[in-house]
Amino acid sequence: MDRAIKLQLSTSEMNYFPDEVIEHIFDFIPSHRDRNSISLVSKSWHKIERYSRHQVFIGNCYAISPERLIRRFPCLRSLTLKGKPHFADFNLVPHEWGGFLHPWIDALSKARVGLEELRLKRMVVSDESLELLSRSFVGFKSLVLVSCDGFTTDGLASIAANCRHLRELDLQENEIDDHRGQWLNCFPDSSTTLVSLNFACLKGETNLSALERLVARSPNLKSLKVNRAVPLDALTRLMSCAPQLVDLGVGCYENEAEPESFEKLMAAIKKCTLLRSLSGFSEVAPVCLTAFYPICENLTSLNLSYAAEIQGNHLIEFVQFCKRLQLLWILDSIGDKGLEIVASSCKELQELRVFPSDPHDEEDNNTAVTEIGLVAISAGCPKLHSILYFCKQMTNAALITVAKNCPNFIRFRLCILEPNKPDHITSQSLDEGFGAIVQACKGLRRLSVSGLLTDKVFLYIGMYAEQLEMLSIAFAGDTDKGMLYVLNGCKKLRKLEIRDSPFGNAALLADVGKYETMRSLWMSSCEVTLGGCKRLARNAPWLNVEIINENENGRMERNEEDEREKVDRLYLYRTVVGTRKDAPPCVTIL
Amino acid sequence: MDEFVNLKETELRLGLPGTDNVSEEIERVSCNKRALQGDTENETESSMMKMETCPPRKAQIVGWPPVRSSRKNIIQTKKNESDSEGGRGVYVKVSMDGAPYLRKIDLSCYKGYKELLKALEIMFNFSVGEYFEREGYKGSDFVPTYEDKDGDWMLIGDVPWEMFVCTCKRLRIMKGSEAKGLGCGV
């Protein structure tokens, strides 16, 4: 931001420079927010900034239209689009809700925008869109799809076949219909530009020889993440022809490897001296993890959160040698003891995610993590700034200690599996614990709360969480006051998502103008009524207020629209382009 | 609280009384006590019965805990595998539209889709047509479907067999016009 401030100080002097010079200065400012600020300084700066903006980030694809995007930024090269709201990840949003990619590709194609990069999250992507994409943008280099659905491997085949300069194809946790076809074969023999290839989420068989040939002719390949269908022998061959790999995602090999194959794998791994990041391991025999011992000291990123087969003790044995780890995603089978070992071994740790191996608490296992593990990590890892922690129990005392140990949290997400669970020692609510977190962590940007919580925790959040941008609330609070504390207090709030909490119309309607400063609000199974939502929609025409109905057939089932009827799911967001036209029957836009 | 529970309550099915989902769920949990036969239709009564006969089981709330399906499936796969190692079969109900009562089969007895479909054809005396990757089943009015862990109705045959065994909760052989939606050229 410093540079932007210095620039502002001498705008009038700067205007004596030709536009190209100013544009060159702007090139040093990549941050979206800074560039948005720059474009507000003056008309001429707005114009220069427009034509020099190459990267655009759109957090809600319905906030703006493709046509307006192109009109303002005709020299666009890289576009990030997000579609469905976050809770879609947990099946709370109907499949057909929206977030369609096609209108964007269509418009970009017609306007002959020189698109090179496309990053999508929670969008509905079709094979037709992927085909159009592959044919429309000659210089297209990078496609990253996260949590998208609606397409098949046929769409991937178009990308492979037509994008001559493709560098990156990164598919993360998408729902892809795998036609078990030959999409990997569609990369032409002349294609040698790949830097990153991730198809871990594909569920079907993979043409191994096509994959091997592709990897062999891609000398720049740094990141390779394969799917379950790539067995140990194939992995060995792949690693042998790509010793330059920095990031590897391993497939699945269920049966214990034969000693000879294992030796070969270890030999190949030893040569990968640049390897820094490891993931995958779904359905992998624990012994296969040991093949990676030779390089584990070099690892900075380790994702074993899908490795349900590897028990806690094997995890601990491996992780304790990963002294340079900065990112660790793991299952709670590592246990408190395991986390204590992580705390003493991984001093560089910045981000930790601990996922539940027993989400519905069906087993009486004692190996899950508790507040003890969390406290140990906070004490041992001074650089920790992001945490996602699923556990069965928590205490205020632990959270207060964590806050003292780690005032640097940027992201703090705690999920106690049982809703409304109090401090398991004092039986009190966890208001004080979370209060300590928000008070100590002055830079906190993202927070998820859980356990037994009253309005008081929201009072604390409103008072102290000055930098908070995203807040997730579930089964918490007592009255409308809770939500009001947050809306009134958190000035930088952008995304608020609430489920199963007793907040109603009074909170929703208190400050309608607040929603213009936010990207979106989600409320499901709360106390807001249809009448309240209608009133909101009337008073705020620059919002899209969407009601998602319980039964997928929409409002046809209801005889009367009863204004006192509670709304099952409410999703509202600011937009400059009004009501969207692509909503399915189960969504009513007020 | 649990939307899916209520849906099943109003579903029109032909099945013997006392064989509702409540007892099936109790069987699924590691619990040696048998569900009381003759559980009433009343949901609250049967959930009280659940609490009396079994260790407390957490009711499943939609979308909670906030974990993606892809993660939940991995864990479920592991659990089912360890379950079947203990010698327990993977018993699922099979219903056929128009049939007077349901059957139960043990999925772990079959090595793949071919065997399973053959067994179903014999059991219900029908034929299933031919499976095509894109169009589904062609050549018959009957379409074999299953309900997966997410509660979605899926066409049998799309996913690898092992994954199917782990994620399948029950089977249903759809017939006629309803089947057309799933079976032919979606």
TrEMBL record, chain A:
Name a Pfam family for this protein: LRR_6
SUPFAM superfamilies per the record?
RNI-like
What are the record keywords, sorted? Auxin signaling pathway, Developmental protein, Nucleus, Ubl conjugation pathway
All residue ranges annotated as the F-box domain in the record = 17-58
**Part of which pathway?**
Protein modification; protein ubiquitination
Q: Which Gene3D superfamilies match?
A: 1.20.1280.50, Ribonuclease Inhibitor
Gene Ontology molecular functions? auxin binding
- Where does it sit, as one GO cellular component term? nucleus
What is the protein's major site of localization?
A: nucleus
- GO BP: any one term: SCF-dependent proteasomal ubiquitin-dependent protein catabolic process
Protein's UniProt keywords contain Nucleus:
yes
Location in the cell: Nucleus
Q: What is this protein called?
A: F-box domain-containing protein
| UniProt source species | Brassica campestris
Automatic annotation (TrEMBL), chain B:
Domain PB1, first and last residues per copy:
89-176
Alphabetical UniProt keywords? Auxin signaling pathway, Nucleus, Repressor, Transcription, Transcription regulation
Biological process per Gene Ontology, one example term: auxin-activated signaling pathway
Presence of keyword Glycoprotein: no
PANTHER family from the xrefs? AUXIN-RESPONSIVE PROTEIN, AUXIN-RESPONSIVE PROTEIN IAA17
Subunit (UniProt): Homodimers and heterodimers.
Name under which the protein is recorded? Auxin-responsive protein
What organism does the record attribute this protein to? Brassica campestris (Field mustard)
**Organismal lineage:** Eukaryota, Viridiplantae, Streptophyta, Embryophyta, Tracheophyta
